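Weekly structure sync, notes
Attendees: PL (lead), two postdocs, one rotation student
Agenda item 3: pending single-chain targets
PL asked that the sequence for the first pending target be pasted directly into the notes so everyone works from the same version. It is reproduced below exactly as submitted, 403 residues in total.
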Amino acid sequence: MAKFKYRARTKAGELQVGFVNALNRDEAVSILSSHDLYVLFVDEAKKEQWYDRALDYFNRVKRKDLMVFTRQFATLVSAKIPLDNALETLKRQTKNVTLKSIIGEMSADVEAGLSLSQALEKHTTVFSDFYINMMRSAEVTGRVDEAMQFLADYIEEQSELISRVRNALIYPIIMIALFFVVGGIMVVIVFPQIGPVFEEAGVELPIFTKILIDGGALLARWWWAVLIMFVIGGFVGYDYFRSEEGKTLMGEVAMRVPGLKSLFRGLYVARFSESLAVLIKGGIPISQAIDITGRTIGSAAYRDALHRSSSDVRKGITLSQSLASKEELFPPLVGQMIAVGETSGQLVALLQKISDFYTREVDGLVHALVELIQPILLVIIGVLVGGLFASILIPIYNLAQTF
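Predicted structure, written out during the meeting:
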């Protein structure tokens, strides 16, 4: 995915300049044309350098800033204040410099005639695909205020979740960091000093002690090469997992890990139910609503599955029947409740119940995982510390046996 700089005119003839993400120039032109823009100029933007990314990290919009912005925006939209006026108000009171600049650009875009989702789409580093697609869906239904309230609640819940996990990890991470510092000192400085002593005494060293001594000698000699490899590997991995392919791979792995599969499946099913309920309530045809929902979930697997379900519904197959064939993504309970909603004419109410049920289930799973993280990491630290000291004490014991 590359970034292209463009210059175009709106239907009203106003000049618009900005950036768009696309695979190639033709796709960039297609995206701009789909937004009713008359393209004047499109060219690939200058490649981002590593120091630009470092600056972006320090100037990033934090989740808390995004949460406050969304909550305040939802309040202003609910008060029937025009979007451009609401954005100007938020721009004046936002303290984050980067977010202030983005809000200013969004305000100018909305004033020029772009929709809110189109304005958001130009800032994908701040607003996720889920955020943008949810807003696009709301614009179709005319329920922008409800979508903003939902997104504000959602980001707040995610922030609370991340905060709980981070607090649970602080102590174990400090312990792990201290272990690696102490272990590194012992492997690089201490082990090479005592190694010759055991060799002169003819003491047979355990295999893990030999590995640590040889590894320490190698690290002491080639530490700079190891450091360069870690830095390069870190940058390559960071870039890859930011790409669409990397995100898709991470999603597939998460859905296959036993402990995380239930968590992510519950999260995606809750998103699916909430989004589909909002769209159907707004009068969107169910097949189109399913397709839009697939793009809002944030998972490639669910997006493809729901695209197939949308095609099934167009062929006359009910949604419950289509989801029943996808039990790896949608538990049987989902299909059964949707079937009840279809026969009773209460599909929206049943979808809301599904969303509430799986939201509570996800909260329970997260709470259980947070409670388990600390003891599991402490056990791992204990095993590592025990192994490190055993690699020293066993040779010392064997040396004492020779006297």
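Discussion points:
- The longest helix spans residues 144-200.
- The chain has a mean pLDDT of 80.
Action: rotation student to compare against the earlier draft before next sync.
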